[in-house]
Amino acid sequence: MMEWKRKDLIALEDLSREEIELILNTAKSFKEVSTRAVKKVPALRGKTIVNLFFEPSTRTKTSFELAAKRLSADVLSFDVSTSSISKGETIVDTAKNIEAMKVDCFIIRHSVAGAPYLISKNVSCAVINAGDGCHEHPTQALLDLFTVKEKFGRIKGIKISIIGDILHSRVARSNIWGFKKLGAEVTVCGPPPLIPLDIEKMGVRVTYKIEDAIENADILYILRLQKERQRENFLPSLKEYSKIYGIDRDKFLKLKKKVFIMHPGPMNRGIEIKSEIAEKDNSLILEQVTNGIAVRMAVLYLTIGSKR
Length: 308
Known about the structure:
The protein is of the alpha/beta class. Helix content is 37%, strand content 14%.
């Protein structure tokens, strides 16, 4: 069995198929911990993990905190609004000062692509990317891979259609890298202004017709419109987007087979997905959230716990 040799987890683009599978297999063993009466193991006892979140987060931040605590680590959540960053301190200096307090790992979310990589090159402790700009969100993709493998027993040959704002989505990029490396067939679909130029070079099929995207898919991966990252108006109206690309009952009735629904959250109900679809029995959305803890436990263990 291969060993994890990386100091950091910055992007799925960097990982081999074997490294991704190592994380998924490790997560499988950790998922059982969350079913116990005492949801804790001593794997990271004595380790200190710092959450550096420069953007709002509910699922990712909470999931990392729970994952760390279930591994018995100490966790510090950094409040950016009351830090010296508001006085002009750079993020690198902030990280170096916190590292000087002998911490073992930074979990970093930032609005600027490349920020976790920059910090990782200036500190000796582990750095895990929790989402950077429009670049990548590796642990989200890993939990998505885990969820699909748990449901189907495999990734190879699965047909997944990623629908929505591909241009601004770090989740889409990480998922494309991950699913392609493990042998899935990936289609991306959305309005032409929200599909990146030359995305076919990542090995995906592109369509602008929602009917084409959902016709033969095993999984529909629905994305939220990233309005906070859009610097110009890409759509005539949300109503028109919802009518054409929103996943609703009418589109589901046309499907010839059972298709599973995934969404990274938070959902804009009524825009990219109707509530009745998000809550159907073939929705994997809450399973994604549950599996996020096991996957992040695996990532934390491999980056800082397996090097004792």
